[in-house]
Every structure is written in structure tokens, then in C-alpha cells.
């Protein structure tokens, strides 16, 4: 059985109501690389949820009044502690959800960058003076914390999806109760430990794992005191929670699924374009919301481009995610693998060809795959994939490419490769997506101040930068008569 070095008792508990708790029930966390358990964590109940809300109410009273410079200092220490614990955090993430260790090291930087930016920004949250049409009145705005936030996060970025929410919430003076994904609760608990070590006051960030998310979430969705829901995960669950949040008119941020198209025009640098498809497609074994899901390539360069993509994909090392040289690890769990296999089998049955891969290696390890001649009705062109498979489709004209790209319920990220400046603008403006990478397959890593979020069924709101901070602030208008 794989064991975690630098393990701590608290990483198996839950942090709420001012203390680390062991619960009567617990549940196992499985390493996808070996399918062996790496430990078990507390399984919190609805009763625990209610205690966490009561504790959050008290914590909010003080935290919202803490001087923003002081809030910034605590966030800064949290950021620094993440770097002191970088290797342990990276290893823990890899053990929990199977992402290659070189990527989880990168995730520590990515996750910490949101804390650093928000630490600096805390002291810049203020208000405005707004002119009145009456001489005897003065108008002001004041930005105030939304209040108690319930956060629900996925497993695919066990640290990044937490700090992208918690850092702006805490900087704004909100308090957060976080329900991490069942697959990766230990990273969340580790971050809670570091927050407390950094000087974060009790109950400002409570982390409550559970193996029964629907039942556990109910008290939060019904409670008037919980003023905001922030969720990252699938569109199906986001839609459900959006409806539940309506009862108490909570503020809502939803970061949901994607089905990113990648357009390669005939004037593109094909080698560059193929390398960016690789980075966007095979990072985290294709399990990111902005992963390329559909590659559209112009007919005149389709054969050359597919040959490059096939060669590069064949060079990827599929294996133990804890090893430094590994490029692609396992997918997170059996259900994810089943979906990938079903999509590949469906595409092959409809006439597609695998130029590389197409099969399972062992366990949860699926060979990185490129498919060509993919029929338009194939599942893989309609559903989010979340696996290491790149379907390549040929197009003739720019209009056709845009129509194919936009024919999706999702609108999170899209990419296009071209050296024609006018086309670059036309395409960027026509793509119905919240994030567009022109000659860039990795726009989200650029900086923590970039807005991240989707249109259509990919979500509501933005994370990152001042957009992400605004999600945790209410604007109060104060009118003063002289
Ligand atoms: P998921 O929706 O199954 O789970 C996400 C979270 O919701 C988990 O914490 C889970 O426990 C919880 N949950 C599930 N059912 C619930 C319910 N009925 N009530 C309350 N909570 C519930 O998603 P996942 O498989 O963990 O993550 C993958 C999905 O997340 C993909 O669709 C991906 O595109 C999306 N995602 C989006 C972004 C983004 O920024 N847009 C980022 C990462 C992942």
C-alpha cells in the first residue's frame, strides 16, 4: 500500500466549529495509479454542516472587520507556506487523483498565485464617490463582504480550484465553508492546516469532507445565512445547485463543464499548433474543463497536421504519475475511464480510425489517442470527454469552422491557430466562448488576474483578477443629505 510521507493526523479529519474532528464514519481515498487506498478521511453529516454554519456566523462578525492590510498579511503567509510545503502538496495531489508530479508541482505555483494576488488586492477594496444631481446630497459606494460562502470543488485541480475561490473570499472579508471532492479531500485539509498556521482565525476557512454530497449540501442551500454558493464541477450538478440556491436568492458563481474546439487554419505554424494541442489536450490526462475536446483542421493541411499530432502523441510517456518523466498518468476513476472508452468505441464503430492509441493499457491508464475520420454524430464530438483522446475533424472554410466550433451547449474555452491577423480578430470575436486562445493553447496559466469562466452552459461569473474578487463583494450605496 502506498503511504504518504509527511502525513498528519488532521489530514484524516475535518476542520469545523473551531477544531479538528474525527467523525463516526470515514471514507477511503484511492490512488488511481495503483487502485490502492492512501488513507481515509472524516465523512461529515448534515449535523456537522449546521455546526459549521453556526461557527461561520460568529467568525464572520470579526473577520469582516479585520483591517484589510492585516487580511492581506495573513494571506501572504498562507502563500509562503504553500511554497514551504510544495513537495508534500504536489505528492499528495498526485496520490489523490493521479496527475503527473511535474504538473502537480506546477499546480502549487498556480494555486498560490491567486493567494498572492488577493493578498495584495485586499487593501485596495474600497468604494467610490458618485456625483448626485442634487447640490445638497452626496453619494458613495462601499464594497462589503457578501458573507458566509459555501464552496464545492472538483478533484481535477485539488489545490487550484480551492485557492481561486478561498483567496478572493477571504481577502474580501467573507468566511468560507468548503466541501472538497470525495477524490481529493486531503489536499483541501492540508490547505486548511496551512491557513491556520498562517494565522487565519478559527472558522474563517472550514473544510468538511463528505461522502454524501447531496445530503450534506442541503443545510447550506436552505440556510438564509449562507449568502453565496461557489461551485466548480459538472454542468449537471451546477444546474441542480443553481436551482436550490434560488430558494434563498444566494449569489452564485458556477464554473462548469466545457467542450473546447481547437481550430487549425491552413496559414498556421503547424508544428506550433500541434504542440499547443498536445499541451491543452493531454495535460492532466485530458481532465481539465478547458482541455481541447475537438480539433478542427483545414483540409489543405489536414494530413500534415495529423501526422505531426500523431508523432507527438506517440512520444508521450504513459505511466506512474509519481515518476518525473511521466507525461500522462491514469484517469481518476473507473467511471471516467468507462466514459472515455465508450466515446472511443462509439467513434470507431461509426468509422473513425485511431492513428495512435485507442486502447486501454491497464488499470486506469488509457493510451493517448488521436482519432481521424470522426463522424459528426459521434458522442466524442458532442459530450465533454475528460480523457486523453483527440478527435480530428476536417473543415473547408472559416465559416464552416466557426459554425462547428459554436455548435455546442458549452462556452468555456476555444482555441485557434492562424498567422492571418484579420482572421485572428474575426475568429476571436465570433467564438461564443468565455476564454479564447489565439495561437495560445494555455491561456489560463498566464496570470491570476485573468478572468476565467464560461458562457452558455459552462457557467455564471468569473474567477481570477478583480472579476473574481467582485464575486465576493456587495456594493452598498450610501446617500448623504447635507
Ligand atoms: P462533479 O460535478 O461530479 O463534482 C463536483 C463537486 O460537486 C464535488 O465536490 C462533488 O462532491 C459535488 N457534488 C456532486 N453532486 C452533488 C450534489 N448533488 N450536491 C452537492 N454537491 C455535489 O464534477 P467532477 O467530476 O468532480 O469534476 C469534473 C467536472 O468539473 C467537469 O465537468 C469539468 O469540466 C468541471 N470543471 C470546471 C472547471 C471550470 O473552471 N469551469 C474547472 C474544473 C472542472
TrEMBL record:
A Gene Ontology molecular function term of the record: glutarate-semialdehyde dehydrogenase (NADP+) activity
Enzyme class: oxidoreductase
Enzyme Commission number, as recorded: 1.2.1.16, 1.2.1.20, 1.2.1.79
Keywords (A to Z) from UniProt: Oxidoreductase
SUPFAM superfamilies, per database record: ALDH-like (SSF53720)
Superkingdom to which the source organism belongs: Bacteria
Pfam families: Aldedh (PF00171)
Domain Aldehyde dehydrogenase, first and last residues per copy: 25-478
Membrane-spanning intervals of the chain: none
Keyword NAD: no
Record-linked CDD domains: ALDH_F5_SSADH_GabD (cd07103)
Entry similarity comment: Belongs to the aldehyde dehydrogenase family.
Entry protein name: Succinate-semialdehyde dehydrogenase/glutarate-semialdehyde dehydrogenase
Lineage per the UniProt record: Bacteria, Thermotogati, Deinococcota, Deinococci, Deinococcales
Amino acid at each position: 500500500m502506498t503511504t504518504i510521507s509527511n502525513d498528519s493526523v488532521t489530514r484524516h479529519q475535518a476542520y469545523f466549529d473551531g477544531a479538528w474532528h474525527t467523525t463516526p464514519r470515514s471514507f477511503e481515498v484511492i490512488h488511481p495509479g495503483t487502485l490502492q487506498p492512501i488513507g481515509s478521511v472524516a465523512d461529515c453529516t448534515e449535523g456537522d454542516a449546521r455546526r459549521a454554519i453556526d461557527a461561520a456566523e460568529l467568525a464572520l462578525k470579526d473577520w469582516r472587520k479585520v483591517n484589510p492590510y492585516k487580511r492581506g498579511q495573513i494571506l501572504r503567509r498562507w502563500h509562503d507556506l504553500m511554497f514551504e510545503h510544495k513537495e508534500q502538496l504536489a505528492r499528495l495531489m498526485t496520490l489523490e487523483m493521479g496527475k503527473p508530479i511535474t504538473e502537480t508541482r506546477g499546480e502549487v505555483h498556480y494555486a498560490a498565485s491567486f493567494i498572492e494576488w488577493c493578498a495584495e488586492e485586499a487593501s485596495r477594496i474600497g468604494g467610490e464617490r458618485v456625483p448626485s444631481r442634487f447640490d445638497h446630497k452626496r453619494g458613495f459606494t462601499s464594497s462589503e463582504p457578501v458573507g458566509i460562502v459555501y464552496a464545492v470543488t472538483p478533484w481535477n485541480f485539488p489545490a487550484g480550484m480551492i485557492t481561486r475561490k478561498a483567496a478572493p473570499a477571504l481577502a474580501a472579508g467573507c468566511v468560507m465553508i468548503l466541501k472538497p471532492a470525495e477524490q481529493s479531500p486531503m489536499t483541501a485539509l492540508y490547505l486548511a492546516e496551512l491557513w491556520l498556521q498562517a494565522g487565519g482565525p478559527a472558522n474563517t476557512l472550514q473544510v468538511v469532507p463528505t461522502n454524501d454530497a447531496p445530503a450534506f449540501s442541503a443545510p447550506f442551500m436552505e440556510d438564509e445565512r449562507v449568502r453565496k454558493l461557489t461551485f466548480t464541477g459538472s454542468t449537471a450538478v451546477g444546474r441542480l445547485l443553481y436551482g436550490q440556491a434560488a430558494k434563498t436568492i444566494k449569489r452564485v458563481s458556477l464554473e462548469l463543464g466545457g467542450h473546447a474546439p481547437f481550430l487549425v487554419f491552413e496559414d498556421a505554424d503547424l508544428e506550433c499548433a500541434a504542440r499547443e494541442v498536445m499541451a491543452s489536450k493531454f495535460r492532466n490526462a485530458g481532465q481539465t474543463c478547458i482541455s481541447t475536446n475537438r480539433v478542427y483542421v483545414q483540409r489543405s493541411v489536414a494530413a500534415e497536421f495529423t501526422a505531426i499530432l500523431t508523432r507527438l502523441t506517440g512520444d508521450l510517456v504513459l505511466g506512474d504519475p509519481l515518476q518525473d518523466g511521466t507525461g500522462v498518468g491514469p484517469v481518476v476513476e473507473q467511471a471516467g475511464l468507462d466514459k472515455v472508452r465508450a466515446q472511443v468505441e462509439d467513434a470507431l464503430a461509426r468509422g473513425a480510425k485511431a492513428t495512435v492509441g485507442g486502447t486501454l493499457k491497464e488499470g486506469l491508464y488509457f493510451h493517448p489517442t488521436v482519432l481521424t475520420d470522426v463522424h459528426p454524430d459521434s458522442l466524442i464530438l458532442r459530450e465533454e470527454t475528460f480523457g486523453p483522446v483527440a478527435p480530428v475533424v476536417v473543415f473547408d472554410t472559416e465559416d464552416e469552422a466557426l459554425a462547428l466550433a459554436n455548435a455546442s451547449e458549452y462556452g468555456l474555452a476555444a482555441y485557434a491557430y492562424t498567422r492571418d491577423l484579420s482572421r485572428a480578430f474575426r475568429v476571436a470575436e465570433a467564438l461564443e466562448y468565455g476564454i479564447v486562445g489565439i495561437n495560445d493553447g494555455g491561456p489560463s496559466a498566464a496570470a491570476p488576474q485573468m478572468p476565467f469562466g464560461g458562457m452558455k452552459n459552462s457557467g455564471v461569473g468569473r474567477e481570477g483578477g478583480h472579476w473574481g474578487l467582485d464575486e465576493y463583494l456587495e456594493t452598498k450605496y450610501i446617500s448623504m443629505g447635507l
